[in-house]
Amino acid sequence: MKRHPAFDPPEYRNWTADPELVRAYRERLENGSDERTAHLANLTDEFLLALYRDLVTTRLQDTALKRWVRQGVISKAWLGVGEEAVTVGCVAALNRRSDVVIPMIRNAGACHMMGLPLEHGFTCYLGTADSPSGGRDFHYGDIARGVIQPVSHMGTSVTIAAGAALAFRNRGEERVALTWTGDGATRTAAFHEGMVFAARVRVPLIVVIQNNQVALGTRLDQHGAGRMRDIPAAYGSEALVCDGNNILDIYAAAALAREQCLAGQGPMVVVAETFRMGGHATHDEREARETFAPELFEHWGRRDPVGLFEAYLGGRGIPAARIEAVEAEADRAVTDAAERALTSRDRSPSPETALFQGISEGGVLHGLRDRVEAAAAGSGTTPGAGSGPSG
């Protein structure tokens, strides 16, 4: 794919496919378990090119956001460069008409794959009136399209996804809930509580541990002992370990996990080994470079998930012209979405809409709303007076 020297990690700027890594990429798919390879046996070129389109779209969305940071449109962005395959491969394995996902902020590609407008990935950063939450929240989703918006507190999404999966099981629906969580979040109480509950009641839940080797700025070897792949055993679950930079390996693991969940064997845990090629956000990229040895960035940089998949497609015999056409389609889609979002920069939400849209008359904030409106009218009402919660 076309590289963007001003915005790409240094290791990606002059990227070329290492023949040994391309060979290993292919062999991992051919030499997996029979259960996994069965999910790869009949993939068409059209399916693979659609997968490539979603992978490139996800990468280019992050590139566009980083461009906005450099241009001063936004102050910072949380990017998933290097981890895109973990998102795209998992969503591709789901039934997008019925299953539900809870992404992390770095899984933004899940939103457009599940059918949300691509420009929502930009308007949410702008906080405009036409953003998904009307400017009230940076995180976004759409439950009607199967996307429960991300939760800032890492690990909490596991408990929420477990609840959704329980509802599916109780209603006898052939649906699964999938959520991603970071390596650091596996050390939280919310993750543990969600997994204990899900394992005890055997719900159709897939938890993807996106092991990018760092929690905020704390390296994996500093925030816990043991291996990520050993964690699921504590909950009686098998770990489906996969190469997080090999999108088809991830797809096969997620497809198998879904199959087993629907057979009543959930919850299932996919452990995807990957690496974040940048900081926690764009503001601390230098600190990220200082956190790890340069050799680690070089190691993972050679394993660019977009570049390796492109090389795999070429080795499969798909003409370069078809691959380039798909990339051009993704580029146009992202460019158009970003431009549409920019046209709404001046559409700021009103204070009333930002605070109270969607709150019913009987809602828990009804009393707080009355006090704010009374204060605005100059009634002299003081905080704590009237009905509703005062804390």
Description:
The chain folds into two domains: 10-349, 3-Layer(aba) Sandwich (Rossmann fold); 359-391, no CATH class. The protein has 17 helices and seven strands. The chain has 391 residues and is of the alpha/beta class. The chain has helices spanning 10-13, 19-30, 34-37, 45-71, 84-92, 109-113, 120-126, 156-170, 189-201, 220-223, 247-265, 285-291, 294-301, 305-315, 320-342, 351-356, 366-376; strands at 100-102, 177-182, 205-211, 214-215, 218-219, 239-243, 268-273. Helix 9 links the parallel strand 2 and strand 3.
Give the C-alpha Rg.
Answer: 22 Å
The largest sheet, given as strand count, sense and whether it forms a barrel, is:
5 strands, parallel
Overall pLDDT level: 89
Give the total of beta strands.
Answer: 7
Low-confidence stretches: 357-376, 378-391
N-to-C CA distance: 53 Å
The multimeric state of the shown protein is single chain
Quick rundown:
With 391 residues, the chain is an alpha/beta fold.
Question: Could you list some keywords that capture this structure?
Answer:
391 residues; alpha/beta; Rossmann fold; 5-stranded parallel sheet; 47% helix; globular; disordered C terminus
